[in-house]
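Methods: example folding runs. The two proteins below were folded one after another, and each record is reproduced exactly as written to the output file, sequence line first and structure-token line second.
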Amino acid sequence: MPPFVQYLVGLFFTPLLAWLETLVLRLVLARCADHPLVQLAQRYDPAAVARACASYYHADGTKGAPPTYSVDLLVRAEIVRSWADSCSDRDLEWHLCSNLVVRFFVGLPLLAVAPDHTTLARFHAWMSDHQPAALFHDALAFLDQVDPEDAASTPQIVDTFAVAAPAALPPRVANLLLDLIADLFAAWLDHAPPALQQYLPPLDLSSIHHPARPFDAIARQALLVQAVSLAQRLLADLQPHLAALQAPARPPIARLLTALAKVLADEIHVDGSGYPTERTDKGSYRIISASDLDATFRYHDDDLTLGYNAAIATTATRMRAVVVVTGATPDSETPALLLAQQQAARLPLPPYCIMDRAGGTGAVRARLDLVSGGQTQMVAFTPQAGGADPTRFGPADFRLNAERTSCTCPNGITSTKAYPRGAGVGVHFRFLASQCTGCPLWNACRGQASKPKSHRTVFVSEYQSYVQRADAFNTTAEGKALLAQRWQVEPCVAWLTRYGGCRWARRIGLKAVQFQLYQACAVRNLLRWLARERR
């Protein structure tokens, strides 16, 4: 190429690149005009989210080089991550490098270098710790402006689903204890001051990081004895010096010490001589993996998942709340948590909360009424009390006096034999066989297999009034119409688990999974709005 031509090309190189970029993007956007990211780029601006994350970079430029990528670009990249099934950092890097529509959405020039996976991972972790709900609340506020919905008069439907944790499962309790011991050793060496290092016992860490593999019961028991003795020794040596640690170093070490003590209490039985064995009676909130101390087992319809229990509250158009709790948390506790999250965000509460039978008990209805201050009523089918035979008389068929001192059966027989249960959760009333002999309702009350000299016990809950009002409301036209709306939550759960990447947690820890669900629900709300606009 002649020097004069080289000079002209160099002189107009920047305008030529801009022209070429405009030409290519024009062709791409013309072909992909209906792409959700193209539509979203034209309709939704996450500037408020970028302002909330502005502290990601130092305000003072003298502390380092100017940032290569703007916060707005990184925020838009997080939207792309959720759009691409909550993908990994490397997959997100691939999208930014190779997908022209994605580059247009985040604002990357045609020939600019995309951020690598380490940059994306740093911002993702920072946003998870400091601004986890920024995108979710901003998208919700945006939709309330462009597609108004009166939250104070719109019922919300609640449902839950499992999120599996990417946690390593040790083969036995001894290995779990050794993993926790190894983590505690590393944390103490990293965070404790030199004056406190002497309290670590001199141990061969190779036997802890790489324990012997037992092949028989005797070797397994020997490994358990070794792990339990080490755990007990560490707790006794380090626990008294926890208060002497600096404030930033104390939480991670305290968390490991608490986990070690919990595993010993939940999994190990020590007899009078100090000999340890594994417990056969396991609790619900057990620590299963040393890599994820927040994950527990979730039992649901014979399905066992190690991870978390995610709950969403949605209307016909958008999800208004999402809560992630550890897997062993019952579904019945999630409605109150969803309302509490909306209260913390200063959002109006719904008049009704619709759920399956997990929300139908009196205790759940009373808790929801208390949390909402009487603003929200639970709408759900009431479960059969105590799992009794539905063909027999249940507690709802018995009448209780105002003082809760007597109970009258359907045949008019009154019992005063009251036995309080627990901490004021209800009263047991006993009807003796001498009171019921010759009763024409014997089979309907006790069943044909009941013995002639047996007594009938009726448990009347403190929340019976909630259940009675719910049964009456469910038979009304309004109650039937609300119960018929429960199906609308199923497409949201299906999208989040099948297409939103929320069946598996991308990172470990309760905060990370909560952030993943926040992001996925925000993008889902925006995509549903675009679909309604197209229709």
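Second run, written to the same file directly after the first:
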Amino acid sequence: MSVAAMGLRALGPAGRGDPRWVIAGHVARSALRWAVIWGAVYGLFVIATIKAFVVAYPSVADRLKIAGSLQSFAILIGQPHHAETVAGFTQWRVLVVIALIGAIWGLLTSTGLLRGEEDAGRWELLLSGQTTKRRAATQALLGLGAAVAAMFGVAAALTLVAGGLPGAHFTIGAALLFAVAMVSSAAVFLAVGALASQLSATRGQAAMITAAVLGVSFVTRMVADSKSGLGWLRWFSPIGWVEEMRPLRDPQPIALVPVVAAVAVCAGLTVLLAGRRDLNASVLRERESGRGGARWLLGPLSLALRLGRGTALGWLAGIAGLAGTQGFVARAAATLLASSPAITATLGRLGAHKASEAYLGISFLTVAVLITIVAAGQIAAIRDEEAAGRLDNLLVRPVRRTSWLAGRVAISLGLVVVVGLAAGFFTWLGAASQHTGVSLATLIEAGINATMPAVFVLGAGVLVFGLRPRLSAVACYGIVAYSFLIDLLGSLIKGNEWIRDSSLFTHIALAPAAKPDWGEAAVVVLLGACAAVVGALAFKRRDVEYA
């Protein structure tokens, strides 16, 4: 049997079709599941937003009042346009949030299926067949494009349903443009991640570069929405392009031009670089360490620290930058919040007594979601160590399985805690520069509170890793997606509180707007710890499973 044939067999179902398209089929199949899931999340988010708005603000007078107060949230989720209408409010509430989610999915998917596959040695098996490096890269991009098309199809179908809801009345054209806008950032960051995979020496480096592009894009969009005179900056941000489309009210289809251009340029450069470089080579060199660096490799724990530091620093820098920006704008946002009696009354019912703390509480919920994604990524990295065969190099030495796993989980837990502390500290730096009056201790407490869902995700991930390792990454990202979806749909869940309670984000207070419930947090952490112990025992007894 040839090496190429073994490669096709290793890919499973993808290898049973036309061999000329096996790479496109494999990439499409690998990305399709989550593309469909997130497409459904997008569509359900639209439906939930419409229903919640119609129920909460039934009259024109109510809608005019709330529309005048939404400017305070512009820095977080964009400038409102005609927010007194169902269409205007829906596009304001949905687009930037979904653009950020799609971008994260895009960068993780493309770097994993391109540079990650190459790092694991599977790309070499495919290239040993009757294909070229450029043709293989083109097929991979087509596979990613098929996943985006599936995401669009699901989101468009649900958006068309949403358009027929009472009070919505979207036209078919507007609903389809809305679906295009929702998947645009995913398409852009799939392409950016594919290009970074050709430039970078490792998957971690590629993900860090793409995440840096996303961070700069998001901060640029925040600055653009901080003042009306800076709106032109949105045209320099992929997230800003999505916001500028305004598909349901005052549509600007011209904002699709930079989206298409960015995807085309990145795809073209990806194919060009793939043909020019050698397999496992890169334009950007991985920093080589001399003997001095090797002195610190004292065991699997220090090795894991060394290998994962690039990704860890990328997440740390990104979340710290976001937190600092949110703190910096807190005072201006609080002033606008306090000017709205309706929002002030709502925040009062939630226990928020200061507008600045209320704004920061909402901001920390965003941070909490990102930290859970960090935790899920750590479990995926642990599984990748085993699937790619790198774990074998450690287990043949006097390294116990439980010691290795405990070390990796400890590093992951440390990263989660450090990111939470950094979020609190940098939020305080930004807020203190504007004299908001929120103390450092209060914001550090809020940062720790935001890590609680991520601790549970780590524990649950270890449990699945011990029992069904191939499902560990899927399970972790699934928990995050499910919790986020239930949190978004909370306004529609009446009489079934247990459904709302199944979301991790329901169990954290909006600190610093409300005092953290450390008793409830302790229960969440204890459940995660118990799951991790069971998973570690199961890992000790099972065989090593490869991809």
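Comment on the second run: DSSP finds 23 helices and no strands in the chain.
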